[in-house]
Amino acid sequence: xxxRISGIxxxxxxxxxxxxxLVNPDLSFDKKSITDVNAEIQRLGQAMxxxxxxxxxxxxxxxxxxxxxxxxxxxxxxxxxxxxxMISQIDELIKSQKINxxxxxxxxxxxxxxxxxxxxxxxxxxxxAADVKDVTKRVLSHLLxxxxxxxxxxxxxxxxxxxxxxPSDTAQMDTNYVQGFLTDLGGRTSHSxxxxxxxxxxxxxxxxxxxxxxxxxxxxxxxxxxGFAVVSPSANEVKQFQEQAVQYAAEKxxxxxxxxxxxxxxxxxxxxxxxxxxxxDDIKAVTDAGAEAVGLFRTEFxxxxxxxxxxxxxxxxxxxxxxxxxxxxxxVIRTMDIGGDKHLSYLPLPEEMNPFLGYxxxxxxxxxxxxxxxxxxALIRASKYGEIRIMFPMIATLVEFRAAKKVFTxxxxxxxxxxxxxxxDIKLGMMVEIxxxxxxxxxxAKEVDFFSIGTNDLIQYTFAADRGNEHxxxxxxxxxxxxxxxxxxxxxxxxxxxxxxAMCGEMAGDKIAVPLLMGMGLDEYSMSATSILRVRSQMxxxxxxxxxxxxxxxxxxxxxxxxxxxxxxxxxxxxxxIE
Length: 579
Description:
Elements: E1 3-6, E2 8-11, E3 14-21, H1 37-66, H2 68-81, H3 84-97, H4 101-117, H5 123-144, E4 158-162, H6 167-172, E5 178-183, H7 191-199, E6 203-205, H8 210-213, E7 219-223, E8 228-231, H9 235-256, E9 263-264, E10 270-277, H10 283-288, E11 294-298, H11 300-304, H12 312-325, E12 331-334, H13 362-367, H14 369-382, E13 388-392, H15 398-417, E14 428-432, H16 435-439, H17 441-444, E15 450-453, H18 455-462, H19 481-496, E16 500-503, H20 513-520, E17 524-527, H21 532-540, H22 544-556, H23 561-571
Parallel strand pairs: 3-4, 4-5, 5-6, 10-11, 10-17, 11-12, 12-13, 13-14, 14-15, 15-16, 16-17
Antiparallel strand pairs: 1-8, 2-6, 3-7, 7-8, 9-10
Helix pairs in contact: 1-2, 1-5, 2-5, 3-4, 4-5, 12-14, 14-15, 19-22, 20-22
């Protein structure tokens, strides 16, 4: 009998395959006395050798899919396995106390973990504790004969079932075989959701029960369009899903015809559909999708993929590469947004009770101006090669924006004095992700060149709900009337001053939100490159005059997130949907 599992539709598409559980086994064990010390040491050595072989496969797959810099973490894991001091201590403990390898391994590695975790003044060494934990878990799995799931070895079509998915999980997978993701945790802004959209793999996240309800090898159909999966479906259900998959493939084929088209509403209004990127390597997907701009270049990845602060020239080359590839189309580049959940091993930050509300983004840049000035110089120099716009993240007050602009002007004047060429009119904008800046948008609009609304953070700050916390995930409410009022206030304030209002959060590509945003007059929609053609197709069917009235009703009449969603679905004609 089939069983339905509901969750959050995180990535469009239909997947049909058997289940692959990416769930760790129970690695508990009892301490035992042993008599054959040499045999026990040999057993440990074999487990370590097998672990190295695992890691080499994983490392090779990560290098192939994500690049050498991302694969280096697995080099660190292999180095731990080759550490002669650690190995000799474990061997000695087996000999002296005549205990099983599992117990000796755990006792010694726990000592290393405690030492690393105690290095509170050295963030890099603290992070090594997590590496030792990962390596210990892998060796234990071989000793116990309970092998860890290895996504790098997936070689047939599967639906991946997981509690959650980490970057290293997805790095190991051959995505040619992965037909879908179904997770317990997550929302539309979680890593697993964003990665699935980037890879164009159907995904349902936040189901709360996937790992309890699905066994390895179960037949699963996954509907990433509507946010549910069916376990052990009947033949008739499989047939219905197959028909829906064919229909969706036909729609995607139609969308591809819009690659070189403008993004225009049914009543003739032009909007800009742009892409979010993290590295210059992402630009091919952007141009292939026919993006009209890069609406967000997250420059922190230049810092996170390095073992030191990137130099001015390294940054300049990255920004220049993207600007040239876009051939005169706008490229909005966000200055370093480190802090919160993004850390640099070589740039220790203070321990904080609430890091998302703490020392991060523009707050670090204005405090550590040498880093900020290096980045601004690189950006100003690169402006000669395309239309680069600079955007400051996490702006809460006018004083912060003015301070950032002052540093920018000083560096521009220095470069001019040095005879370095750059564009005459570099636009300066800000992220609107703090409710205070959304409320005060009328005053900010007098001084900025553009706004870009970062809804991922704006939602979590508006509802005081950490977007990564499963217990408050119900408060991720992009259609809530309170949030819609904030967004409309920003758009209205921008237009009153003749400025651009853009959005670069996940909401910009949301099929329910798009008609509301068009009704508000939002100018630019920046999203994962894989969502661009779908949104452009939807825009063609939307009459903004009609939706301006729907926006008024949503903001002034509706009281809940659910009521707004129902209102939008009622007004969306079949021809305006994307399903």
